[in-house]
Design goal:
seven-stranded parallel β-sheet; Aldehyde Dehydrogenase, Chain A, domain 1; Aldehyde Dehydrogenase, Chain A, domain 2; globular; 41% helix; 16 strands; four-stranded parallel β-sheet; 2 domains; alpha/beta
C-alpha cells in the first residue's frame, strides 16, 4: 500500500484500478454478479464475530469523540443488524439484473429498429458517515448495476467498514470478478474526500450519504456529478380528519423506533381543529416516551414542553427531539413544509382521501406518505433489497436509489443496409 500521506497518489491509484475494473464489469454475467453477492453474504455471516469485534473498537472511538446516543445507535452493529446486512445482500443478489434491460423498443418509418437499453454508469464514489451497513449496501448495489465503486466510510465506522469490505472482496474473488470492482479508501484522512470530488478522469458520479455538513461540502466542491442525499427534515401533518388512534401509533413509531435514521419524523404539524382532541394527546405521549417536544405557541402551554425557537423549524435532530406546532389548515401545513422541508419525506394523517390527494399533489418531496410511518422511507422497505441513499434532487435518480437507479442508458440502432435520403 502507498504511503497514506500521499493522498493524491493513493486516490489516483484507486481510481485507475476502479476504472479498469468497471470496463470488465460492464459485460460481466448476471450469474457471476449474483454469485459474488451470495458468497459475500455468506462471508458476512461466517465472520460476524470479527465484524462485531471491529465494531466494538469503533464504538470505543465514538464514545471518546462524544457522539450522541442516536449517532452511536447508527454506528452500532448487533447480530440482528448483521443478519439484516446478510438479508440485504441476498435480496439484491436475487433481483433482476438491470444491465441490458430494454426500456423502450420501436421501429421508425426509415426501417430502423431502435432500443433504449440500461447500461452501467461506470465508477461510483460513495462518501458516507457513521452507518457501517452502507458498506455492504453500496457495494452490493453498485456491483449489481455493473459499476465499480470506491467507498469512503466515516472515521467512526473505519474498523467495521474494513471488516465488511473484506467479505465483499471474498465474494468477488470466489465469483471470478475483478477484486478492484469494490474498493475501500484505507484512511481516515479527510483529504481523501476532497480528492474524490475532483477525480473526473476516474469517477463518474459521487453519492454522498450523511448529514447537512457532508452533503453541503460535496455539493460545493465536487467537480464530479452528484446524487444528493440531503438531510431528512421529515414532517407529519395531522389533518382535521385524522383518526386519533391511527395517528398516535404512526407518530410514535415515526419518532421513536430509531431516531438516528433519515426517515425519523422531525416536525409535527397539527390542524387547529384537532389541536386539543388529538394534538395534546400526541404531545403528552411523546413526552412520556422520553421525547423532548419543542412546541410552538399554542402547544407550549402543555406541561413538559420546551418553547420552540425559529431554529427548530427546518432542523434534523436525529435524536429524541421533535418540533411541533399548530397550523390553521392544510395550506398552512404545505406552506410550512415548502419553507422548511428538505424534499426528503413528508406525510399526511387523514381519513379524507381528497385532502390526502391535495397534500400529495402540492408537495414535491421525493417520498410522500398517507397514513404510514415515515420510518418506511427506506429502499429495503420499498422492495429494493437495499439502497445507496434517498436522492432528494430532481436529476436522474430520486427517492431510494437501488440498482436500476445506478444505471444510465444507451440507444441501439439496427438497420438492414439502411441509408438516409
Amino acid at each position: 500500500m502507498k504511503d497514506l500521506d500521499e493522498i493524491p497518489v493513493l486516490m489516483a491509484d484507486l481510481g485507475a484500478r476502479a476504472k479498469a475494473a468497471s470496463e470488465d464489469l460492464a459485460f460481466a454475467s448476471a450469474e457471476k454478479k449474483r454469485a459474488a453477492l451470495l458468497d459475500a453474504a455468506d462471508a458476512v455471516w461466517d465472520k460476524r464475530s470479527d465484524i462485531v469485534a471491529a465494531n466494538a473498537r469503533d464504538m470505543d472511538f465514538a464514545r471518546e469523540k462524544g457522539l450522541s446516543d442516536a449517532m452511536k445507535d447508527r454506528l452500532k452493529l448487533t447480530e440482528d443488524r448483521i443478519q439484516g446486512m446478510v438479508d440485504g445482500l441476498r435480496s439484491v443478489a436475487e433481483q433482476p439484473d438491470p444491465v441490458g434491460q430494454v426500456l423502450e423498443d420501436w421501429d421508425q418509418p426509415s426501417g430502423l429498429n431502435i432500443q433504449r437499453v440500461r447500461t452501467p454508469l461506470g465508477v461510483i464514489g460513495v462518501i458516507y458517515e457513521s452507518r457501517p451497513n452502507v458498506t455492504a449496501d453500496a457495494g452490493a448495489l453498485c456491483l449489481k448495476a455493473g459499476n465499480a465503486v470506491i467507498l469512503r466510510g466515516g472515521s467512526e465506522s473505519f474498523n467495521s467498514s474494513k471488516a465488511i469490505y473484506a467479505c465483499l472482496v471474498e465474494g468477488l474473488r470466489s465469483a471470478g470478478l475483478p477484486r478492484d470492482a469494490i474498493q475501500l479508501v484505507p484512511t481516515r484522512d479527510r483529504a481523501a474526500v476532497s480528492e474524490m470530488l475532483t477525480m473526473t478522469d476516474h469517477i463518474d458520479v459521487i453519492v454522498p450519504r450523511g448529514g447537512k455538513g457532508l452533503v453541503g461540502l460535496v455539493q460545493r466542491e465536487a467537480r464530479v456529478p452528484v446524487f444528493a442525499h440531503l438531510e431528512g427534515i421529515v414532517h407529519i401533518y395531522v389533518d382535521k380528519d385524522a383518526d386519533p388512534q391511527r395517528t398516535l401509533k404512526v407518530v410514535m413509531n415515526a419518532k421513536t423506533r430509531r431516531t438516528g435514521i433519515c426517515g425519523a419524523v422531525e416536525c409535527l404539524l397539527i390542524h387547529k381543529d384537532v389541536a386539543d382532541s388529538i394534538g395534546q394527546g400526541l404531545v403528552r405521549a411523546l413526552i412520556d416516551a422520553g421525547v423532548e417536544v419543542r412546541a410552538g405557541a399554542t402547544l407550549s402551554v402543555i406541561a413538559g414542553t420546551a418553547r420552540a425557537s425559529e431554529e427548530d423549524w427546518g432542523r434534523e435532530y436525529l435524536d429524541m427531539i421533535i418540533a411541533a406546532r399548530v397550523v390553521d389548515d392544510i395550506d398552512a401545513a404545505i406552506a410550512h413544509i415548502r419553507q422548511y422541508g428538505s424534499n426528503h419525506t413528508d406525510c399526511i394523517m387523514t381519513e379524507d382521501d381528497q385532502a390526502a390527494a391535495y397534500f400529495i399533489s402540492r408537495l414535491d418531496s421525493a417520498i410522500l406518505m398517507h397514513n404510514a410511518s415515515t420510518q418506511f422511507a427506506d429502499g429495503g422497505e420499498f422492495g429494493m433489497g437495499a439502497e445507496i441513499g434517498i436522492a432528494t434532487g430532481k436529476m436522474h435518480a430520486r427517492g431510494p436509489v437501488g440498482a436500476p437507479q445506478l444505471t444510465s442508458f444507451k440507444y441501439l440502432v439496427r438497420g438492414d443496409g439502411t441509408t438516409r435520403s
